[in-house]
Structures are given as C-alpha cells and as structure tokens.
C-alpha cells in the first residue's frame, strides 16, 4: 500500500490528511508511476479550498515526476523503467505512486532531473504556451508579467529575455525584486510601493505594452488593462487574489480596442502531439542553459499542509516541490 495526501472536505491547509491508499493496477491505456518528486502549484490551493470543484474525498495535484512501474494493455507511449513526468490529468499527484493515463506522460531526456521536471512541467509548459503561442513574444517586444518572482514568472522572464524581449515585472518586496532581476526581469516594480501603471508608462515612454500576463486576477486586472497599447492583449491565466469581477466589454473599446483571453494549459496541451512538442521546446531551452529551473523550497510529501501555508502566505519564491 502507498500513501497519499487527500482531503475529505474543502477548506484551509488543515483539511489535508496523510492516508494509506491502494494505487491499483493500470488498465488499458494506463501506466502506474512511482513518484520521486511532486510539483506544488498555486492552483492546488484553489482545488483544496473549493474554488475549483473536486469530487470528495479527493486527491490533490496534477504535476509530478517518477518511474514507470507497470503499463496496461495497449500502451506504447511509455515502458516500464522509463523516467517520466506529467502535468495535467486527474487530481492525485500528491501520492507515493498512482495510475495515470499513459498519453499524459512525457519521457524525460538525459540532462533533466526528476526534481527539475516536477518543478517545471506545469510552470514551464504554462510559460511555453503564454510566450510562444498565446502571444508570441519576440525581439524588440516589451511585456508586463505580474508575479515575476513566482514559479511561472521566473521561467517566463528568462525565456522572454532569451528571445530578445524587454521584461517588466511586478513583485511584492525587495528580495523578490532582486530575484526577478537575476532571472531576466529588466524592470521589477514593487506593486506594494509603486503604481505599476505609471511605472509602465514611464518605462515605455508612454507607448505601453502589447501584452500583459496576469495570474493575480482581481487586484490587478483593471489596472493591467491600462498598461496595454491600443489593440493590446490581456492574458489572464490565474486568480491568486480572487476572481475578476464581471467586466463591461465596452471598456475594451474605450481603452483601445483591447483583446482579453483566459487560456489554460489543459486546452493547449490537450492533443498528445501538442503536449510532446511543447515539452520538447521546454526541455531544449532548459538544457541550453537559457532557462534555469531552480527549486527554491522542498518539503516532504507528508508536510503538504505546511507547504500550502507558506505558498499562500507568499513565503515561497520560484518553484517548490514535495519529495517522496
């Protein structure tokens, strides 16, 4: 029998419990994975709190790395002994082992460690679709990225800088400003002390930016629109401060024929061919050294509640993993 973090009711970190579970045998199209490292992501707190729906009792987490221990009938994408990682699929990554749809697993290449993979599959693939697909950032672009010292932010800042962009990022304190700057953010803005709209105006000479990437949501959405140049794109991909209130679409016309999108990794990586292509580009940019994946915090899996407390208290930076 294996162990896993589960919850029987929604609420704060205290609802997470360490339980014995039966991982079971893989069926057709499935594989059983023994986890070595598990990714911690802010979206996990939405599921735990009830902001995102889950059938109770429930496992938690959708990102991990490990080794394939068994495969079911018809599986050709992976084999026993493969080092693999995944992001997406059903909840339940906070576990010592689990059965997964095999078509969601990506074989890890040499040069990518299990801990790196667990720290970057969701965050790195999110950065990939944001800056390589939703709006393809290129040389000469100036972009605004909120939460630049977060897990997605540190990867996205490095990647955008590597393709020749100028990166403006918001952060919460001086320590995070230094961290963001060391990872490609040219202009860290302390939103706790500065008006980020006015700073963006000053940095761009009044031209503003063609794209804003916002995972904060309620607290930043309205002002983020004011940072956009005419026909600019607002990319809302999270809501750490709460859900954005209903918006009068006429405001988009008033502020310059703006665009708004609410993308998800699930949609972008739904087809296996797209998943593999996105993962390959991420692996390539990491192995080249252009993007460094740094695990800044590590917690034992059984201490997931403490990890959630620290994450929501904004005590963490960059990537955090749970170890088995």
State the CATH topology of the largest domain. Quinone Oxidoreductase, Chain A, domain 1
In percent terms, what proportion of residues is strand? 25-35%
Distance between the termini: 14 Å
Principal-axes geometry comes out as globular
Q: Per CATH, which architecture of the largest domain? A: Alpha-Beta Complex
What is the name of the CATH class of the largest domain? Alpha Beta
Number of helices: 10
Estimated radius of gyration: 20 Å
Write out the CATH superfamily name of the largest domain. Answer: Medium-chain alcohol dehydrogenases, catalytic domain
Q: Major sheet, described briefly?
A: 7 strands, mixed
Domain Enoyl reductase (ER): 11-322
InterPro entries: ADH-like_C, ADH-like_N, ER, GroES-like_sf, NAD(P)-bd_dom_sf, QOR-like, Quin_OxRdtase/zeta-crystal_CS
Keywords: NADP, Oxidoreductase
Protein name: Quinone oxidoreductase
Polypeptide structure, described:
With 324 residues, the chain is an alpha/beta fold. It folds into two domains: 2-120 and 270-323, Medium-chain alcohol dehydrogenases, catalytic domain (Quinone Oxidoreductase, Chain A, domain 1); 139-262, 3-Layer(aba) Sandwich (Rossmann fold), CATH 3.40.50.720. It contains ten helices and 16 strands. The chain has helices spanning 42-49, 114-134, 151-162, 174-182, 196-203, 221-225, 250-254, 265-268, 272-287, 304-312, and strands at 2-7, 16-21, 30-40, 58-59, 63-71, 83-87, 97-101, 106-107, 142-145, 166-171, 187-190, 209-214, 228-236, 259-261, 295-300, 319-323. The strands form three sheets. Strands 3, 5, 6, 7, 8, 15 and 16 form a seven-stranded mixed β-sheet that branches. It has a six-stranded parallel β-sheet with strand order 11-10-9-12-13-14, sandwiched between helices. The chain has a three-stranded antiparallel β-sheet with strand order 2-1-4, with no helix packed on it. The chain starts with a strand and ends with a strand. This is Quinone oxidoreductase. InterPro entries: ADH-like_C (IPR013149), ADH-like_N (IPR013154), ER (IPR020843), GroES-like_sf (IPR011032), NAD(P)-bd_dom_sf (IPR036291), QOR-like (IPR047618), Quin_OxRdtase/zeta-crystal_CS (IPR002364). Residues 11-322 form the Enoyl reductase (ER) domain. Keywords: NADP, Oxidoreductase.
């Amino acid at each position: 029998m294996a162990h896993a973090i589960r919850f029987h009711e929604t609420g704060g970190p205290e609802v997470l419990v360490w339980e014995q579970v039966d991982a079971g045998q893989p069926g057709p199209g499935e594989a059983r994975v023994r986890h070595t490292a598990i990714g911690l992501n802010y979206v996990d707190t939405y599921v735990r709190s009830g902001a995102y729906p889950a059938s109770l009792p429930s496992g938690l987490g959708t990102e991990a790395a490990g080794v394939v221990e068994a495969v079911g009938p018809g599986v050709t994408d992976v084999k026993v002994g493969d080092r693999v990682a995944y992001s997406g699929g059903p909840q339940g990554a906070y576990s010592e082992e689990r059965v997964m749809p095999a078509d969601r697993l990506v074989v890890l290449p040499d040069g990518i460690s299990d801990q790196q993979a667990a720290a970057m599959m969701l965050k790195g693939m999110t950065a990939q679709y944001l800056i390589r697909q939703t709006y393809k950032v290129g040389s000469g672009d100036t972009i605004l990225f909120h939460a630049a010292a977060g897990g997605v932010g540190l990867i996205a800042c490095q990647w955008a800088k590597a393709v020749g962009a100028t990166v403006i990022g918001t952060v919460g304190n001086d320590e995070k400003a230094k961290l963001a700057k060391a990872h490609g953010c040219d202009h860290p803005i302390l939103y706790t002390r500065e008006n980020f709209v006015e700073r963006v105006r000053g940095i761009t000479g009044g031209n503003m930016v063609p794209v804003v990437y916002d995972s904060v949501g309620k607290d930043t959405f309205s002002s983020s629109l004011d940072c956009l140049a005419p026909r600019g794109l607002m990319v809302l991909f999270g809501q750490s401060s709460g859900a954005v209130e209903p918006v009068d679409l006429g405001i988009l016309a008033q502020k310059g024929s703006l665009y708004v999108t609410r993308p998800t990794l699930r949609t972008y990586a739904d087809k296996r061919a797209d998943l593999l292509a996105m993962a390959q580009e991420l692996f390539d940019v990491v192995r080249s050294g252009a993007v460094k994946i740094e695990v800044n915090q590590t917690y034992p899996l059984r201490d997931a509640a403490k990890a959630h407390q620290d994450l929501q208290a904004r005590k963490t930076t960059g990537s955090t993993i749970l170890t088995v």
